[in-house]
Amino acid sequence: MNNNLLKVALAQIAPVWLNKEKTLEKIEQSILNAAQENCELIVFGEALLPGYPFWIALTNGAAWNSTTQKEIHAHYIRNSITIEKGELNAVCSLAKKHKIAIYLGIMERAANRGGHSIYASLVYINETGEIKSVHRKLQPTFDERLTWAPGDGNGLQVHPLKDFTVGGLNCWENWMPLPRTALYGLGENLHIAVWPGSDHNTKDITRFIARESRSFVISVSSLMAKTDFPKDVPHYDKIVKDAPEILANGGSCIAGPDGEWIIEPVLEKEGLIIETLDFNRVLEERQNFDVVGHYSRPDVTKLQVNRERQSTVEFKN
């Protein structure tokens, strides 16, 4: 086995929108497909399970005390994932069986926060099927704040995968310099950036992070078309009335440690995007720049990170 080389799969798929059971079936099939290609890591987009809250921008999501917003929001919560209930067990079993690591974007119904608020969480499952980190998005973006809760620093963690050290962030928090630096400081050299979809997000930041960090960067986006809205979702007619034909066009891509494209953003194509990464490229590019190593000045600037999992109530026996 060559630990320098890592075969990765970018799963650019559409959810069965706001249906966690059927979306899980698509996720599990994608894992099986990646395993057949001997992939060692598969990455899924932000909030894929069970889907991004596109309805907010289409149905006046900021309307106060709106029955429409309440009913769709309740449906969203019901279809979100409670990890403690074992709702990712089948995914973990596939990871173990096929020795494949997984980054998966979920809407997490967080048990330690009462179970009624939801977080855009990025879950890392290692190749032995263990959930090793759950990163709750630090700052929901714009209208996401109408349905998602802000997370904490507990998930700012990295993980060994062959010679690589992998870490990840959700969507626009990839633009936040300090969370990126926290991962760099932990030794990250393969950065995972997950998005709900669209190349306007991935086409610039993917190459920028790669060049800044001298790491491989994998950006994975989902797909969503107007025809993907299920007719049984609450207030379907209001959601689709002003919806564009394409809401998320993909844009999944890979940049190398020199900031150049390995795979340019792939648009409007569902399926797996597969590539093999060579860790030695990281070492080559760190020769002239290492943002937390020989090109850093911790005596002048230093970052402090709070990785405590936040909870409203602390019980002591």
Architecture overview:
By secondary structure, this protein is α/β, with parallel strands linked by helices. 25% of the residues lie in helices and 27% in strands. It has eight helices and 13 strands. Strands 6, 7, 8, 9, 10, 11 and 12 form a seven-stranded mixed sheet that branches. A six-stranded mixed sheet has the order 5-4-3-2-1-13. Helix 5 (177-185) links the parallel strand 7 (164-170) and strand 8.
Would you identify the regions where 5 or more consecutive residues have pLDDT less than 50?
none
What's the N-to-C terminus distance?
Answer: 49 Å
Give a quick account of the main beta sheet: strands, pairing sense, barrel closure: 7 strands, mixed
Overall mean pLDDT stands at: 97
Please provide the count of β strands: 13
SSE run: EHEHHHEEEEEHEHEEHEEEH
